[in-house]
Amino acid sequence: MFSACRIHIESILWSISVTVTGNTNATPALAGSYSSLADAITDLNLVTSLSGPVVFELAAGTSENTAAQYNITLAGDLANAITFQKSGVGANPVLNRTDAGSNTTSTVGGLGDAIIRIDGTDNLHFDGLDVTASNQGIENGYFTSKTATNACQTFSIKNCAITMTKGTSAYVMGIHIGNGTTSVSSATGVTVSANSGRTENVTITGVTISNVHIGIYCRGYNSATLCDQNLVIGASGAGNGNTIQNFGGGSGTTTYGIYFIYTNNASADYNIINNAGGGGSAHASGFYGVFFSTGVIGAITANNNIISANTSSTSAVQWIYNANSGTSINFNNNTLSGTIGATSTSYLIYNNNSSSSVSASGNTTSGTITKTGASGTFMVIITMGLQLQVQKQSAAIISAIFRLPALQYLPA
Fold first, then answer.
1. Helix/strand/coil (H, E, C) string of the chain?
2. Span between the terminal Cα atoms of the chain, in Å
3. Residues facing residue 21 across a β-bridge
4. CA gap 372, 392 in Å, rounded
5. Burial class (CB in 10 A: 0-12, 13-18, 19+), 13
């Protein structure tokens, strides 16, 4: 009897207690409370319809351990929000994944294990739920997946900490917005065939991501009409910027603070990106602070970010990088700093395309940017053929301090 009592007490101490508001808005009805987050999600996945919003109140100061992925599979309803949020005063509730996972991911964006995975649920929101993983075999903190006709639409994560264990893995990331891959060796994913298969209206604010190889990775489908759209990573207002720190430094492969590929209307604003911050170290390979990769269209924005790059290798470093032509491109009021070992051509801001509207103004350095590499070109900004550059000659260290004048290109 004593042992049974002890086990029961320990299960309570190591579970997130949940109270449900709007439980009768679900069919079948949800319980009014749950003793664990696992139980609450299990019942949520049995819901067939919603007639109103449902809020899962997660008790402050509680935590829950799991040796398995928490998977939300309910399709959801764009008219009725599903929200998981912290309740009460105190520390955020914490979900800890304690095992090593089962997927042997072998490429960036390939199928990996997650702490929380969401399969195409609409109108889903997380507010104040911290997640952690203790093994590098868990590749994703929050992970969204999809089918060809069902993706997450109207989705948000805010006011939380995501703390992973990167180890020497090149695949660990805080948030992974994926294209439905089922392969550990490919990030390509599904062939989206309807607007409902397009992840859209995603907002990530007030999130601190630590101990990862990639901070936030957003991948849509390679189509100008069916790619993911309206992705907001950081916003104005107190507490709405994200902090991405202690990334890279484990695997000797290229690291990224924020990564977009095949997206429409992607923004990264008001974020602090510092790979050596929060217990991190200099990275021994290529570095991108904000990376707009292939197939990024529409409005392309990186404003009001604070980006510090710290590398020890001769690989190229790009604080903000874009080679896509969007309807508008804005790189304004960013503060850039760091110490880099690059001998390959590196850019503070790289923008090379034929966009009809490019604006870059108010960008500054914080102190000096030190380049320890023995050779190589250091570009301050390149856009629409306009270049400002500093070429290293023979000195051991090059420091660039710059204030970009207002720069705007508009067609005649």
1. CHHHHHHHHHHHHCCCCEEEECHHHEECCCCCEECCHHHHHHHHCCCCEECCCEEEEEECCCEEEECCCEEECCCEECCECEEEEEECCCCCCEEEECCCCCCCCCCCCCCCEEEEEEECCECEEEECCEEEECCCCEEEEEEEECCCCCCCEEEEEEEEEEECCCCCCCCCEEEEECCCCCCCCCCCCCCCCCHHHCCEEEEEEEEEEECECEEEEEECCCCCCCCEEEEEECCCCCCCCCEEECECCCCCCCEEEEEEECEEEEEECCCEEECCCCCCCCECCCEEEEEECCCEEEEEECCCCEEEEEECCCCCEEEEEECCCCCEEECCCCEEEEEECCCCCEEEEEECCCCCCEEECCCEEEEEEEECCCCCEEEEEEECCEEEEEECCCCCCEEECCECCCEEECCC
2. 84
3. 55
4. 10
5. exposed
Please answer whether residues 223 and 273 qualify as being in contact, where contact means their C-beta atoms are separated by less than 8 angstroms.
no
Q: Identity (one letter) of the amino acid at 70?
A: Y
Per this entry, what is the length of the chain? Answer: 412
Structure tokens of 132?
Answer: 């952690």
Tens of pLDDT, residue by residue, the chain (412 residues): 333 333 333 333 489 999 999 999 999 999 999 999 999 999 999 999 999 999 999 999 999 999 999 999 999 999 999 999 999 999 999 999 999 999 999 999 999 999 999 999 999 999 999 999 999 999 999 999 999 999 999 999 999 999 999 999 999 999 999 999 999 999 999 999 999 999 999 999 999 999 999 999 999 999 999 999 999 999 999 999 999 999 999 999 999 999 999 999 999 999 999 999 999 999 999 999 999 999 999 999 999 999 999 999 999 999 999 989 999 999 999 999 999 999 998 999 998 887 767 888 888 888 878 888 878 888 877 665 444 333 332 222 233 333 333 333 333 3
